[in-house]
Amino acid sequence: MDIIDVPFHKFLGVQKSTTKDLASLDLEDLPQYKNHYGTVHVAAQFALAEAASGELLLQRFGKVADISVPIVRHAEVEFRRPAFGRLRAIAQPDEDALRRFGRDLNEKGTGAVQISVIVQNEKGETTISARFEWFVKRRETTVSP
Questions:
Q1: Measuring CA to CA, which residue among 90, 75, 110, 107 is closest to residue 23?
Q2: Of 39, 56, 59, 143, whose CB has the highest number of CB atoms within 10 Å?
Q3: Number of Cα atoms under 13 Å in the Cβ half of residue 52
């Protein structure tokens, strides 16, 4: 699975960034993302940040998506400044939390992990910071008699 193949992300035009070794995604500077003030609408920024958190999960636990159901259980967003231009969302991994998540998923079949993300404009200024709590449960397989 590729995060940009999610139908909503395709609809938005989310793109993989050129940054290596980071779960980062870009959103072009297009008129359809603007709000009534001419800045990038917070819903577009939220969607970009959520996608970047999912990208981090896929980078670290890609095979999990094939055998489990990952969903966002909780999100917190802090809006820091109006956003203009092309935006980049960068997921910030907490290695200890990701290790615990992987262990729980392997041992219990479920796990939860919080992933922090920042969205930045072209100047590198943070427009929003967010935290997404992902809950993942291994799919149950039903055996027919």
A1: 90
A2: 56
A3: 32
